[in-house]
Recover the amino acids of this structure.
């Protein structure tokens, strides 16, 4: 018998129609409570102490208010990340896709500065100007170089204000863009030769960068740049119980934010999705008795969350409002089969050799997945 969740997604605040608010807005009450209750010393430029930041990230209490955990995993890694930002070292979070690198960097910036929006998104098209500064060219042509014509990058603004800037997917940038970071992180000064000025970074300035291990080899970081960072590798969830907890929590938050008019997925639906993801990701069943072909996709925790959120949208829009095996199977097919030829075969073998033999609890999901993969 399937275990059913009776909880329903609640609606977000009517006053905020943003599709996704930054962390400091979503958790403003918790941040304010932590600041009010904080009795420890605050590092220069920080809104709360290192201990309060840790409570915000890992959960706890602030007076009578319960602080929800934002990162479920290794507390020691969070402590190391926070301690790094207390110093003048930059922080680099590395890991597989879906290991909460961006999520953690956003919440660290939200707790420390109350502002997680100074972001440079690394891509193949990111230029050095996006890291340093550029110009309003109409003003530049009309009046020449001036402070009014200067357009500051997020990192420039963070240096001036003594706050944190985030650099997402830094290894997707070309090497010359990465090299521009070396002098910024070493000298803590940004030169504007057109105005004959140098802007010194204020106390509290630092950078949190993220890098995806799947992108290794695209634009490898130089040893010189790596030396400017303290590097933390974020692992995939160590146990299935931890991953189920993460997925369940994030699905509930997503459903609330998106106002999905469906019941939350049943506990066994979450367990089934996480089990499938972990087994295909590791290339073996959880008991280690059977080897499996892994699909070409990552099958990250973030994708498991997306599968279940999509199943809720299907159930709400075209079903009864209760997430069915068919709703989950529709999302699983797209998550697993990224390469039409190879992944379809691997998925079919998994369905026939593993799911089919798991008894009545798994039978509805097996039937629905087989139908989709036919």
């Amino acid at each position: 018998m399937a275990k059913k969740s009776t909880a329903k997604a609640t609606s977000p605040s009517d006053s905020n129609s943003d599709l996704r608010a930054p962390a400091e807005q979503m958790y403003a009450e918790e941040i304010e409570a932590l600041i009010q209750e904080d009795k420890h010393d605050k590092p220069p430029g920080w809104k709360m102490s290192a201990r309060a930041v840790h409570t915000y990230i890992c959960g706890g209490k602030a007076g009578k208010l319960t602080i929800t955990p934002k990162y479920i995993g290794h507390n020691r890694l969070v402590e190391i990340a926070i301690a790094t930002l207390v110093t003048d070292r930059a922080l680099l979070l590395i890991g597989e896709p879906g290991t909460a690198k961006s999520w953690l960097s956003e919440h660290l910036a939200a707790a420390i500065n109350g502002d997680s929006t100074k972001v440079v998104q690394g891509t193949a098209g990111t230029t050095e100007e996006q890291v340093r500064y550029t110009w309003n060219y109409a003003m530049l042509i009309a009046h020449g170089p001036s402070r009014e014509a200067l357009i500051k990058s997020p990192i420039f603004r963070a240096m001036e204000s003594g706050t944190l800037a985030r650099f997402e997917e830094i290894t997707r940038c070309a090497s010359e863009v990465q090299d521009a970071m070396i002098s910024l992180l070493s000298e803590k000064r940004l030169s504007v030769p057109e105005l004959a000025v140098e802007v010194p970074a204020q106390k509290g300035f630092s950078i949190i960068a993220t890098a995806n291990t799947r992108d290794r080899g695209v634009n490898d970081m130089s040893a010189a740049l790596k030396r400017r960072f303290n590097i933390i590798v974020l692992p995939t969830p160590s146990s299935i119980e931890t991953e189920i907890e993460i997925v369940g929590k994030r699905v509930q938050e997503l459903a609330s934010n998106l106002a999905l008019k469906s019941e939350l997925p049943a506990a066994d639906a979450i367990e089934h999705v996480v089990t499938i993801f972990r087994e295909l990701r590791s290339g073996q069943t959880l008991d280690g008795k059977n080897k499996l072909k892994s699909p070409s996709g990552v099958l990250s925790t973030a994708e498991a969350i997306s599968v279940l959120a999509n199943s809720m949208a299907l159930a709400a829009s075209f079903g009864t409002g209760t997430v069915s095996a068919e709703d989950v199977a529709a999302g699983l097919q797209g998550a697993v089969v990224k390469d039409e030829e190879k992944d379809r075969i691997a998925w079919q073998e998994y369905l026939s050799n593993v799911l089919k033999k798991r008894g009545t609890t798994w039978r509805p999901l097996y039937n629905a997945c087989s139908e989709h993969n036919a």
Residues 1-14 have pLDDT under 50 and may be disordered. The radius of gyration is 23 Å. The CA atoms of residues 197 and 261 lie 56 Å apart.
